[in-house]
Each structure stands twice: as C-alpha cells, then as structure tokens.
Amino acid sequence: MFTGNATVGLIDTFYRAGSFVFGGGHVVLPLLQAETVQTGLVEPGAFLAGYGAAQAVPGPLFTFAAFLGAVTTGGPSGLLGASIALLAIFLPSALLVMGVLPFWERLRRAPRVQRVLTGVNSGVVGLLAAALYDPVFTAGVTNAASLVVAALAFVALTSWKTPAWAVVLGAAGAGALLL
C-alpha cells in the first residue's frame, strides 16, 4: 500500500474495483478476489460465503463490497469498513454518470462509440465466464457431490424458474447434508 494507511488502502481497493466495472457487478468479482483474498484482507471462506449471500438478496452485487469491508482483517472493519467499501465502489460510477450525462445523447448516437461499446460488451462476456470459473467453480465445486448440487441449482433457476432465494436455501441445505 502506497500510503501505509489502512483506510486509504480500503478506499483504494474498492474504488479501483468500481472503476473497472462495465456490464454488471460480476465482472468485478475476480478483481475483488485478487484485492481482498490474495492480499490476506479477507479469508477465502468468508469471500465465498459473502458472495453466496449476495446472490440470495435482491440488489446489485456491489453490495457485496459492504460485506467484504465489514470482514476485513486489517484496517477499518465492521460498520465503518462496510460503509467505506460500499461508498468507494459506487463512487466511480456516480462520478462517471455526472460527467457523461450532459453529453449522453450525442455519445450514444455516434457510430464509433457504438462500435466501441459492442467490443467492450464482448469482453464483458469473457470476464463473466472467467468470474464463474475462478473463484466460484474452482473453489465451490470440489467433488462430484458439489457438482450435482450446482447442476441442480442451475436447473432449478433456469428450467424450473425457482426463485433465487429458494435455490440458495436449497443448495445450502443440500451442501450441509452432503458435503
């Protein structure tokens, strides 16, 4: 950390994560993992548990930042850490909206901007696939039983149209019994 100040470091971690997001919060998952788990700021189990809980509640994945800020092992944690992380991760998009809004109509009609956004959207699909694979699949699907639970949860969501909260509760129960 450049300043040595844990609060500034926490702001830096989540501000940078928020500034790299395009296309949804799941794109930031690998960056959040690298900045929190791999640096020792958050335990790997807490990261996955928080990510799972974030999937069970309505709202943007960015609220996961509040959980990560609350469970940090260095610097501000608890309510203060949660507040700092949540504000820092939303700040870049708020600044972008305020800066671009006056020019939005002109920008969205520009052919070059449309082509750039098409390319960025394609890149986002790759990042989402990477975020699904690592850390979710590599850390969460560790044996045949966990693969079956994950596959059943996927089928319940996509084919049976089961509410996400019910799938999370069912998968948690199945995991507690089988894993």
TrEMBL record:
One of its GO terms (cellular component) is plasma membrane. It is a multi-pass membrane protein. It is found in: Cell membrane. GO terms for molecular function: chromate transmembrane transporter activity. The chain crosses the membrane at residues 79-104, 116-133, 139-157. Its main location: membrane. InterPro entries: Chromate_transpt. Pfam families: Chromate_transp. Keywords: Cell membrane, Membrane, Transmembrane, Transmembrane helix. Belongs to the chromate ion transporter (CHR) (TC 2.A.51) family. This is Chromate transporter, chromate ion transporter (CHR) family. It comes from Brevibacterium aurantiacum. The lineage of its organism: Bacteria, Bacillati, Actinomycetota, Actinomycetes, Micrococcales.
